[in-house]
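Narrative progress, year one. The postdoctoral researcher (J.K.) led the effort to move from monomer predictions toward full complexes, under supervision of the PI. The following entry was the first complex the group processed end to end, covering 632 residues in total.
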Amino acid sequence: MLENIGINWIKKNLFNTWYNSILTIISVIFISWLGSGLLTWIFTTADWTVLKDNIKLFFVGTYPVKLLWRIYLSLAIITILGGISWGIISSKTNLFNKQNLIIIFSISITSIIISLPLGRQTGITLLGLLITIISSGIIGQKYLSKVSFFTKWLSLIWVITFFLVTGLIEGGLFLEPVKIDNFSGLLLTLFIAIISIVICFPLGILLALGRQSKLPIIRWLSIGYIEIIRALPLIGILFMAQVMLPLILPPEVRPDRVIRAICGLIIFASAYLAENIRGGLQAIPKGQTEAAKALGLNTPLMLTLIILPQAIKAVIPAIVGQFISLFKDTSLLAIVGLIDLLGISQSILANPKFIGKYAEVYLFIALIYWIFCYTMSLASKKVENN
Amino acid sequence: MKPEFLIIAENVEKWYDNNFHVLRGVNLEVKTQEVVVIMGPSGSGKSTFIRTFNALEPYQKGRIIIDGITLSHDLKNIEAIRKEIGMVFQQFNLFPHLTVLDNVTLAPIWVRHWTKKQAQEIALELLEKVGIIEQAYKYPGQLSGGQQQRVAIARALAMQPKIMLFDEPTSSLDPEMVREVLDTMRSLATSGMTMVCVTHEVGFAREVADRVVLMDEGKIVEIATPVEFFSNPQEERSQKFLSQIL
């Protein structure tokens, strides 16, 4: 029975006409030639010790070893909260539908597979995170989704967690501080990307609104900003942020180089984001503003309750696309001298012990970028459907 | 003392941005509990005229006094007047991202600062009145045109306005849905609401209106009781208009 369905599917989709049959055969030959080459390389030629020996460098860079517990704690907090949110959001649906099961299954397989090249500890950590997220997801769905405190304030809890985790990683107050400029590796990439995304989003909204403002000065300033920034290359802005910011600011103020980089990314991304959001604003019919005004809503209420929720919802795919490219653009920071994920890879490759291991290292970090970007893409689909 | 006229429009003149003279000195007074129907060919400025009452359209000359308050350019003044005027649009203009109930309770909660519970009670009462209480938790997109327009009426009424403006409320409805909306408007009129309606529904005007106004080319041609207007129009323009629509 099942066999028949499979054969029928193949007949219908791969061999339905003579030219499709030829295309299928050519593609199969090409893919198997490429795939077998890749697999042979992965399992025979490639030397994965470069990853195993530098695993800490890739993920947290030169973060002090005795303070690593803070990273683990942060990871645990985020995973638990993520799982709880997942459970609360899907409180009325099945947590383990087909798609989620596939994801869970592939993560567990991956964590076993990567134990081989990356060492057992990495695999166990990943598996632990998976178990944490699933169990907190179940707790979230079963118990916390009925507690109105959690459902009502979920986004606020995330904001607090954001500050808590950055505080935990940076230190300060009664924790031993770690200088931001000493961050490196994936930790730096995530630190920069997340802070840039969080800040550029409201800025983009303000710029988009400014561009539509009736007040000429605000409108012209917004248009000028957006058009100038969009006409500049990102790498140019990043260099300017590194070199020119100290010239403009008074000598007492010397922001960290990481902060300068974040400024550059925010300046760049907010201009693009503003244009995306403007697209959404233009899609809202005029009748919506008229109805809101006729009910006596003032402009701030009209924007926050009626216009922006609809406008942003309409352009979620474009906004997430912007966030994804912002995340990948952080790799340019290696050029301005920050040691992000790409930067740390380059310095690992510069070590005489690992010279010539380009393919292994770049394939590995490509995989890491892909995992994060694909997660964002999946999340955006979830948000769109809700 | 209660002002005798809820709406006083004196010599209202308006030019569009392209210098088109859309309102050429319009005068109208509407008494409390009166129902006025404004008719006229398209482009006569009737919709623009009623939209000046709640400042959705600005005007350049003349004066509008709503419930004793002169409409000015001051934002606070405009918002205060908008609270007292409910408006129903041709295209319904419900908020598609909110449920029917949230559509109705939004303004009372955020503008009148009622509690959510209080607003919901009144909203459900109103939805019951316009006959769609069973749709309260659906989204506007799931409703028929006639149901949407009745939600729009409930939404406007939830602010407990003194005046209701209707801007061609049945013009974008399928014929079989026109009646349910007109019935809702009729019962609203009998309950004593002050209403100004721009509509082409002759039956409604005949039966419900206290006065019928005919506008053409930005001016009022004739104001008369429905009996007089439909059986014995005084102006040549009114006769021509009626011969076209009857």
